[in-house]
Amino acid sequence: MIDIETMGAAHVARVAQLEQQCFSNPWSERSIASEMENDLSYWLVAVEDGNVVGYVGSQTVMGESDMMNLAVDPAARRKGVAQALVNALVEGLRQQGSRCLTLEVRQSNLPARRLYEKLGFVTVGRRHNYYFHPREDGLILRKEWRI
Questions:
Q1: Domains of the chain by start residue, with CATH
Q2: Backbone angles phi, psi at 20, to 5 degrees
Q3: Per-residue pLDDT, 124
Q4: What is the distance between the alpha carbons of residues 28 and 24, in angstroms, rounded to a whole number?
Q5: Predicted confidence band at 132 (pLDDT cuts at 50, 70, 90)?
Q6: Active site residue: 19, 42, 55, 116, which one?
Q7: Distance (Å, rounded) from C-alpha 92 to C-alpha 97?
Q8: The one catalytic residue among 104, 130, 131, 136
Q9: What is the Cα–Cα distance from 20 to 127, expressed in whole angstroms?
């Protein structure tokens, strides 16, 4: 069973490992740890049998949130972890008074795009050459809700 928890100091090292494993331009452990000290940030982890198998992070300014990162351990994919994380993030942000969530996704990342569309996100724009290694456009997706 997957439990969704607020990220704490004990989770940072594993989240940094997942960053390294999942992204071509990963955040450092120090950068991730600094998010815990940022009043604008809200990060969650997915825990299965005591192990962090995924995480999601966001920042909120004036009632609008931006998803910073979302990753799931490749061994835990296709089990609903990402969906559980995004749903928990949206609910937590809504309870905190946010009214929307925006994110960027690689144009070629069809599994992620399908998930976001399933969860009610719509494409609202494009960032030309947003991603590196390889260079690629990022699609801007957004979901709004009533608080």
A1: 2-144 (3.40.630.30)
A2: -60, -40
A3: 98
A4: 12
A5: confident
A6: 116
A7: 9
A8: 104
A9: 23
Active site residue 116: yes
Residue 91: the pLDDT is 97
Q: At what angle do helices 110-118 and 81-95 cross, to 10 degrees?
A: 50
Q: Residue 16 has which token pair? A: 């940094």
Q: Which residues contact 122 (CB under 8 A, 6 or more apart)?
A: 141, 142, 143
Residue 34 has pLDDT above 80, yes or no: yes
Q: What is the 3-state secondary structure (H, E, C) of the chain?
A: CEEEEECCHHHHHHHHHHHHHHCCCCCCHHHHHHHCCCCCEEEEEEEECCEEEEEEEEEEECCEEEEEEEEECHHHCCCCHHHHHHHHHHHHHHHCCCCEEEEEEECCCHHHHHHHHHCCCEEEEEEEEEECCCCEEEEEEEEECCC
- Is 117 annotated as catalytic? no
Distance between CA atoms of residues 91 and 17, nearest Å: 26
The residue written with tokens 């992204």 in the block is 23
Rounded to the nearest integer, the mean pLDDT of the chain is: 96
